[in-house]
Write a structure and sequence with these properties.
Helix content: 25-40%
Largest sheet: 8 strands, mixed
Organism: Plebeiibacterium sediminum
InterPro entries: PLD-like_dom
Protein name: Phospholipase D family protein
Number of strands: 25
Structural class: alpha+beta
Strand order of the largest sheet: 7-14-13-12-8-9-11-15
Number of helices: 18
Radius of gyration: 30 Å
Length: 607
């Protein structure tokens, strides 16, 4: 966890954090939410256990611009997303504006800016649990103190479509001088080539993965001005390196290419994932594996991986120190093409396209970003209705208002082709997050008390409207309290909804206040509808006449408020609750006259 500890030290040094942008190949939401972004507000992973905990974290993260970009095929779909941070898929084909490419989105970059400065963290570590715990990774950490270095980092995110204008004020405070390092990435040049960045001479390469045509690659590197190439690979527990057996034999037979290992062998058996390129005058630490696609050598632009890292000038002393005691590596075995392909298949999801879905909390509606041709050929299941599939071209007209509680908890969506095969899965990005309302009153007693106290306020007894799958559902405070308890129940119920009605009338010319009363407060009309629907369902099941009659009046009071609200709001109106007088209720002639009077005087509907 050395990297994690260093990350927390940087956060502590520059806090409060204002901007946090990440890129990664594979992506695990649990690592990011539970360990990384929680550190921005001083929370540890042990403090995040319940939905209430994560919703509190969401509130604390509101002021921080957090974005995470990952390769669209490399998401850990078994890990749930529990916060509202933006996790954005990247399809390299879309960036290169081509129909198909085998290139991947592979940079591992963190840009952190706080009130007291900014840092770049880059290297070989993905946003995965293993990278931040057990893997051996190579990392370069740089404080951003010069204009050039800051602009180099920001240019990567600008190429990904990020508005970097808010960072320009910070850049203006930096020194306009040269530094002894630069940040480079594939998208900053029309034809990137890592070997144009390295000063010539003997070359040492630490890499866990290699081109299938390793000798061809080494020959090409040699012709770039690197006469001696020393390779330090990862050696698996099975004593294998990720080089084809036929290529490995050629390396062993070569005088120019050497397979090496540290003289002091490390008993640590986890993946040596470091990616380091070292010459006597240059150090490169980044995401570059030893392959054509990664380095850009002799590759068409649209077939190059998107990679990034730091290139730094070094002296002889530093070179010798970094190189360490290197000795020949013998007695290892290569792998077959089938083994290489299998490992790759285990890393990537079998997706063939990418989609971004936005959920707008102001309008309770979805929108979509995608380069898909003929979206009508695909269907999608959305968070509010995960068991339903709708045409992809109807996403922009779909509302989740009536089932918004599901969207509070469930962030995932899946796209299917004509054969009902899943071709993409991802997480929604949420817009107007300040309009989310994860809290509500979970029983009628708390609701009525809050309305009597202040219909436009937020009582202290509000609770999160959902639970995580890991939480117990035995909390007695969340049970619906709906029993009729004598005339006192009627009195408080009538008083509470009259207060709500008065507040609606008072706010009739204030659209913002009406919107809050309708949708945003814990005691909003939308939440009241949901709570009353659950309560009436229980009352009908138990068939207690007093309870049923109480609920009849309760629903009429709610509907009265909804109709008055709709009269003023005019757009984005709410449906009233449908309800018929239960046959279990015995109504006398005198009662019917009374109810008829209520209909005439108080806009009641059912008789």
């Amino acid at each position: 966890m050395k990297l994690y500890q260093k990350f927390k030290q940087i956060v502590e040094q520059i806090k409060p954090i204002q901007t946090a942008w990440f890129t990664t190949f594979n992506m695990d939401p649990e690592l990011v939410e539970k360990f990384l972004v929680s550190a921005f507000v001083g929370k540890g992973p042990e403090e995040l256990k319940t939905a209430e905990d994560y919703e509190a974290l969401n509130l604390e993260l509101t002021a921080i611009d957090i974005k995470i970009f990952y390769d669209y095929k490399a998401l850990n779909i078994q890990s749930q997303k529990r916060t509202t941070i933006d996790i954005i898929p990247v399809n390299v084909a879309d960036i290169y504006e081509t129909i198909k490419t085998d290139a991947i989105f592979h940079p591992k970059v963190i840009y952190l800016r706080g009130e007291k400065g900014a840092y770049l963290i880059t290297g070989s570590a993905n946003l995965s649990i293993s990278a931040w715990s057990s893997n051996r990774e190579s990392i370069s950490i740089k404080k951003l103190t010069t204009v050039d270095n800051a602009n180099q980092v920001l240019s990567l995110f600008e190429e990904l479509g990020v508005d970097i204008s808010n960072e320009e004020q910070f850049v203006d405070t930096l020194n306009d001088v040269e530094s002894n390092w630069e940040f480079v990435h594939t998208l900053m040049e029309s034809q990137f080539n890592l070997f144009n960045e390295l000063k010539k001479g003997e070359l040492y390469v630490w890499s866990p993965y290699f081109s299938k045509e390793s000798i061809k690659l080494f020959d090409a590197i040699k012709s770039e001005g690197f006469p001696e190439i020393n390779i330090v690979p990862h050696v698996s527990e099975a004593n294998k390196v990720n080089i084809q057996t036929s290529e490995l034999d050629k390396i062993f037979a070569s005088d120019d290419y050497n397979l090496c290992q540290p003289k002091r062998k490390d008993d640590h058996q986890s993946l040596h994932h470091a990616k380091v390129w070292l010459t006597p005058q240059t150090l490169a630490v980044g995401s570059w594996n030893c392959s054509f696609r990664a380095t850009g050598l002799n590759m068409p632009k649209k077939q190059m991986n998107i990679e990034a890292g730091v290139i730094q000038d070094i002296d002889t002393k530093t070179f010798n120190s970094l190189k360490g005691d290197i000795v020949s590596l013998n007695g290892v075995e290569g792998v077959t093409v089938e083994e290489l392909n299998k490992e790759w298949e285990e890393v990537l999801n079998p997706f063939c396209l990418s989609v971004e879905i936005m959920a707008d909390w102001e309008s309770f509606s979805y929108s979509m970003k995608s380069e898909i041709e003929k979206p009508e050929n695909y269907t999608i299941s959305l968070p509010h209705a995960p068991n339903d599939k709708i045409s992809l071209n109807t996403v922009d007209t779909t509302s989740f208002r009536d089932k918004y509680i599901r969207v509070l908890k469930n962030k995932s969506f899946t796209v299917f082709d004509k054969n009902d095969k899943a071709v993409f899965q991802g997480f929604i990005c949420e817009e107007n997050k300040e309009q989310r309302q994860p809290y509500a009153y979970v029983n009628l007693s708390d609701l009525i008390s809050s309305l009597i106290d202040n219909p436009s306020g937020e009582g202290s007894v509000k609770q999160c409207q959902y639970k995580l799958s890991t939480e117990s559902d035995n909390d007695t405070t969340s049970k619906i309290m709906s029993e009729y308890k004598g005339t006192e129940s009627y009195y408080f119920m009538f008083v509470s909804f009259q207060k709500l009605l008065d507040k609606i009338d008072e706010s009739k010319k204030d659209k913002t206040a009406l919107d809050k009363l309708g949708y945003r407060l814990p005691g909003s009309l939308l939440n009241i509808k949901n709570l009353v629907a659950e309560s009436i369902e229980l009352a009908v099941k138990e068939k207690k006449e007093d309870d049923l009659l109480f609920h009849f009046f309760l629903i009429e009071e709610v509907n009265r408020c909804i109709k008055r609200f709709n009269k003023y709001i005019k757009t984005n109106t709410l449906d009233v609750i449908s309800f018929e007088m239960p046959k279990e209720i015995t109504i006398s002639r005198k009662d019917k006259k009374f109810i008829k009077l209520l209909k005439e005087e108080l806009e009641y509907d059912a008789i």
